[in-house]
């Protein structure tokens, strides 16, 4: 993990950058265009969006305007819950592709484990993968029991599981399971939506390394082999978030950060959501 181009090999051989930009709650239009362009300019290769974020068009515009060869970028989007099911997932994919203005997607994810629907949805993802319209397929917000259920019938195992993950919710058990199954774990909301930035333990560790709390958390992710996608719309913060490749946390500090775990979510519970 030397720089923003450093990538995790997925189980099908595709390489996914360890650090990317998330655009959840970033407004379509100028806000998302500028933040994605700032990230690409700063050397980011990975951009994570979703149909439900309603900013795929802006992401697509930024990619176009950034002028970086398409094959150098890694673009993720996700099928929303109301579009789950076989045919509707294929249609939703076409819509996302069109909005992004791309010929293919690098990673396509099932956004949430909608009961009674995610298996059919997964079949659609397998079809898209076989047709080489996506480079990799995966899931988001899946617990161990969801993964076990899905993999009983899946032809292709998920390559990625993107979940809420931060020091207050370190997902140790899920991480172990995914490692054994060769599923790459990816963290959304790695900074617990900013909640962790005033944490005393993290502030002390940050001071020791002359880094920000955000940089320390993102470094903890990387050293735990967790792909991470912090969100920001401010150029200086986007650049700062990426400045995590020039230091290493000691095993003692890694343990201190892991010890902050409270199994506490800032987002919805994958076993109990109604959207």
TrEMBL record:
Keyword set includes Manganese: no
Keywords assigned by UniProt, alphabetized: NADP, Oxidoreductase
Annotated substrate binding sites: 111
Active site: 53 (proton donor)
Domain NADP-dependent oxidoreductase: 20-261
Gene Ontology terms, MF aspect: oxidoreductase activity, acting on the CH-OH group of donors, NAD or NADP as acceptor
InterPro entries: AKR, AKR5G, Aldo/ket_reductase_CS, NAD(P)_OxRdtase_dom_sf, NADP_OxRdtase_dom
Domain of life according to the entry: Bacteria
Residues with site note (Lowers pKa of active site Tyr): 78
Entry similarity comment: Belongs to the aldo/keto reductase family.
Name of the protein described by the UniProt record: Diketogulonate reductase-like aldo/keto reductase
